[in-house]
Amino acid sequence: MNQQELLDKAREGLANAYCPYSKFPVSAILVCEDGSVVHGVNVENASYGGTICAERSALCSAVSAGHRKFKSITIVTNLDTPASPCGLCRQFMVEFGNYEVVMGGANGSVEVSTTAKLLPFAFTPASLDEFNSQANNNK
Ligand code: THU
């Protein structure tokens, strides 16, 4: 699927968002390393803090299906301006490496970035690897 097809597919997915409280649907599509695609939507909760964003929802589904490496994530909302992922989702996305982040606005505008650019100076699995390889890590 090319970028426009992914944006269109993601937009179709907005109908599945469960957002009775915010009424702000978000839909995300991951392209996995093997080319398969995995969808996610935001899933809200009456206990508001229990809400999961579309990006994390897609990643949880993908990881549950055995995927660990991704080529891109495409995110759409009904905002004209492409919506940028929240901080928690940036942390969750960069856990799985540096890959493309495509954000689509309802008026057809598109922003393209990467997980690394969206979260500079990130704490990642490499930080823990470095700690584990230090001689003085109090083992
Ligand atoms: N939301 C996402 O799904 N992704 C983001 O990156 C930002 C926010 C959702 C969470 C909540 O259901 C609604 O948008 C309003 O915050």
UniProtKB/TrEMBL annotation:
- Its Enzyme Commission number? 3.5.4.5
Q: Give the InterPro entries listed for this entry.
A: APOBEC/CMP_deaminase_Zn-bd, CMP_dCMP_dom, Cyt/Deoxycyt_deaminase, Cyt_deam_tetra, Cytidine_deaminase-like
State where Zn(2+) binds: C53, C86, C89
Per the UniProt record, which residue ranges are transmembrane? none
Q: Is Zinc included in the keywords of this UniProt record?
A: yes
Task: Tell me what reaction this enzyme catalyses.
Answer: 2'-deoxycytidine + H2O + H(+) = 2'-deoxyuridine + NH4(+); cytidine + H2O + H(+) = uridine + NH4(+)
Q: Name one GO biological process term.
A: uridine biosynthetic process
An MF annotation (GO) of this entry? zinc ion binding
**CDD domains per UniProt:** cytidine_deaminase
Top EC group: hydrolase
Q: Which domain of life is it from?
A: Eukaryota
Residues binding substrate: N42, V43, E44, N45, A46, S47, Y48
Give every CMP/dCMP-type deaminase domain span: 1-126
Q: Where is the active site?
A: E55 (proton donor)
Q: Which GO terms describe its cellular component?
A: cytosol
Task: Please give the cofactor(s) recorded in the UniProt entry for this protein.
Answer: Zn(2+)
Q: Which Gene3D superfamilies match?
A: Cytidine Deaminase, domain 2
What functional role does this protein have?
This enzyme scavenges exogenous and endogenous cytidine and 2'-deoxycytidine for UMP synthesis.
Q: What is this protein called?
A: Cytidine deaminase
Species, as recorded: Pristionchus pacificus
